[in-house]
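Much of what follows relies on a compact textual record of a protein's fold. A complete example follows; check for yourself that the lines match position by position.
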Amino acid sequence: MDKKTLIESATRLGPFSPTTATGYADKSDRLIARINEALLSRADTKSIVGDINLAMMKDNHANHVRFIASILKHFDAEVLTETVLWVFRAYRNRGFASTYWAAQLSAWFPILREELPREIYEEVRPLYEWMQVNIPLFEKLSHEQSENGESPYQNGH
C-alpha cells in the first residue's frame, strides 16, 4: 500500500456528525488526562518515549486530542494522513520508539469507550482503528519521506 491508497482508505472514515465532533471536543480535557495517566502508569514508558520526553509525550496527547477534534469537525482524509505521517517522523526524530504508537493507540480504546457516549464512540472508533491498523504503513512511509527529504505536504498542501 502506498500513500495514495492510504489516503483513499481514510476517505471512508468521514465525514463525522456535528454531534460527534462536539461531543469529542467537549471531553478533551478528560481524554487528555486519562491518556496521560494510562501511558505514565506503564512500566515501559521511558523506554518507548525516552527518559527526557515525558513532557513531550503529554504535549503529543494534548495535540492529538485537538487534532482529532478538528478532523471530526472538518474532515479531510489527506490532511489526516499527511499529519499522521508528519507526527510519526517528528516524534521518531525526538527519540520515540515505534512501539509508542501501538501503546498509545491501544490505550485510547477503553478510554474513549468509557468517556464518550456510545453513539459518539461508535462513530470515532473506526478512525482510531484505521490509525492503529496502519501503524506499520505510517512507519514505512514516514521513514521513506525522511530518507528522501520529502516535505509531508509535497503536493502543495
